[in-house]
Design a protein that fits this description.
Order of helices and strands: EHEHHEHHEHHEHHEEH
Distance between the termini: 23 Å
Helix content: 40-55%
Strand content: 5-15%
Largest sheet: 4 strands, parallel
Radius of gyration: 17 Å
Number of helices: 10
Structural class: alpha/beta
């Protein structure tokens, strides 16, 4: 197997999910006592969240890129960024790390395309929902998927739930009902499915328990990373873009 660098802590709640899914995925495929060869850098999320709020994306990119470079020096051969929002600076992190980065939008877009859908809703932080450069443009250009985002009031509710609850390990039925309402309104506008485009949302919603197509970016990203670890044909080696 290859060795994967996992750049997480944004938040640690979802990074713990990545760690579990990566190891479970390898164990299922190889059996026995097999697990995923990983190098992990987990940041203190508080300064990163402040940089996000202040629009200081270059500072965040510099910090995360240095950590990615450290993962390369520690033996990582590829990189997973365990957060949707910070894919805003994915190219800068990839270049600084000197490692091929497995982009979360590509894993998500592949699943949407395989399901035969062309228009989906997007739930995530306000940055992810409002800044097309994070996910939306890449989904459109590489997967042919059009994206609908909730109106401002719903975006505010979703963003607040992510930072005030899910990133702190708080999972409430009241917030689950809020998210289900947002999903229903996206469906009424023509969304054929909805992307759970924040790595913490899978703590709140289980796609397997919902009749409407939900695409869990965390699970899809982790599954793609397992394929890369095992050097499957659909995940060839490549140099950073």
């Amino acid at each position: 197997m290859r060795t994967l660098g996992l750049l997480g802590g944004m938040s640690w709640e979802s990074t713990a999910v990545y760690y579990r899914l990566l190891n479970q995925g390898v164990a299922r495929r190889l059996g026995g006592l097999h697990s995923a060869p990983l190098r992990i850098a987990s940041v203190d999320f508080a300064p990163v969240a402040q940089w996000q709020s202040d629009g200081q994306w270059a500072a965040a990119a510099q910090h995360l890129g240095a950590l990615g470079s450290g993962l390369w020096r520690a033996g990582a051969q590829g990189l997973v960024l365990a957060t949707n929002t910070m894919h805003k600076v994915a190219d800068a992190i990839e270049a600084a790390a000197g490692l091929p980065l497995l982009h979360i939008a590509d894993a998500t877009g592949t699943a949407i395309r395989a399901a035969g859908l062309t228009q989906v809703g997007l739930l995530g932080t306000r940055f992810t929902m409002e800044d097309d450069s994070i996910l939306i443009d890449r989904l459109r250009q590489r997967s042919g998927v059009e994206v609908l985002v909730p109106p401002a009031a719903d975006r505010a509710k979703v963003h607040a739930t992510i930072y005030d609850e899910l990133c702190r390990g708080v999972v409430s039925d009241a917030s689950r009902q809020v998210f289900l309402g947002v999903i229903d309104r996206l469906a009424a506008r023509g969304a054929q499915g909805v992307i759970l485009g924040c790595t913490e949302i899978s703590l709140l919603l289980d796609p397997e328990k919902h009749p409407f197509p939900l695409f869990d970016s965390t699970g899809l990203h982790a599954a793609a990373a397992v394929g890369w670890l095992l050097e499957e044909p659909s995940h060839p080696e490549r140099k950073p873009s």
